[in-house]
Structure formats: structure tokens, C-alpha cells
Write a structure and sequence with these properties.
Elements (H helix, E strand, L loop, with lengths): L12 E6 L1 H5 L3 H11 L2 E8 L3 H7 L9 H8 L4 E7 L3 H9 L12 H5 L12 E3 L3 H11 L8
Antiparallel strand pairs: 1-3, 1-4, 2-3
Bound molecules: inosine-5'-diphosphate.
Length: 152
Amino acid sequence: MPTPELLDPDKEHTLVLIKPDAYERGLTGEILRRIEVKGYRLKGLKVKKASRELLTAHYVEHKDQPFFPALLDYMSSGPLVAVVVEGDRVIEGFRTMMGQTNPTLAAPGTIRGDLGRDWKTPAVQNVVHGSDSPTSADREIALWFPELVFKD
Ligand code: IDP
């Protein structure tokens, strides 16, 4: 049995999703490159077609939003890439790199601003997800990478 690879609890981690639109467009390498040249480290990485069950748990805070069914359709429309990223203040840092939710309004230089388009679909298709707080990061990493997380 291989020893499970565990995350260092003294370091900060965030969950990044390279969403199905970005995977389909071949943007995975560009997004991972930006993360690495910033100085963050990749600690877990998988290509996965997410189930609606997993996505419902991931986006539970939005479950009463009118766009929730469309968000699940979008996020389950094809494979995505889930990544655990490690670094000092990486949660806040990746949110800055990502840019704001609507790619039309996201600043140039950000991932969404440079790579995102306004698809005018019921769910905003915006290339990437990044955890928005330490609590969300812990919860999301446990959902997507249970094999990397210590359980007491
Ligand atoms: P964030 O991804 O920028 O943190 P959230 O508000 O957490 O934004 O929303 C989660 C995801 O739901 C967004 O990334 C986007 O794909 C989608 N979304 C957010 N707001 C809307 C909306 O008003 N209409 C359609 N889709 C939305």
C-alpha cells in the first residue's frame, strides 16, 4: 500500500477548478503555468467529470439561486481539472489572479479577464473556480481530494 500523500497542515491551500469550458478550450496548461510562475505549488491534480451530487455539495451555498440548475449543467457538461494549490496567502492570491465573476468585467491581466468570454448562457461560464475563504478551502479540498486530507 502506498503511503497517502497528505497536505502539510501548517501551509495554506486552496481548491482551484479549471472549469469545463476552459478544459474544452485547451486552457489547462496556461492556467497551471500562471499558478506556477506566481510561485504557488501544485499539490494535487485530477481530470474528472464531476457528478451532480459532488457539484451540489460543492456549490451548496448557491442551491437556492435561480441559476443553480444551469450552474450544475455547465459544471457537469464535460471534464474539468481539480487542483490543490499551496502557498502563502494562496486563497486570497488566487482570487486576485482569477478576477471577478463576470469575465466581461474582470480586469485584463486576470485569468477571467484575459481568457474568459461572455457566453450569454444561463450560467456564467468563467474559466476557473477558487475557494473564497479558509473554511471553504478546507471543505472543498475534503470534497474533491479526500485522499489528501487527514481525518482524526
Ligand atoms: P465566484 O466563482 O466568482 O466566487 P460565486 O458567486 O461563488 O462566484 O458563483 C459561483 C459560480 O456560479 C460563478 O463562478 C459562476 O459560474 C456562476 N454564477 C454566479 N453568479 C451567477 C449569476 O448571477 N448568473 C449565472 N451564473 C452565475
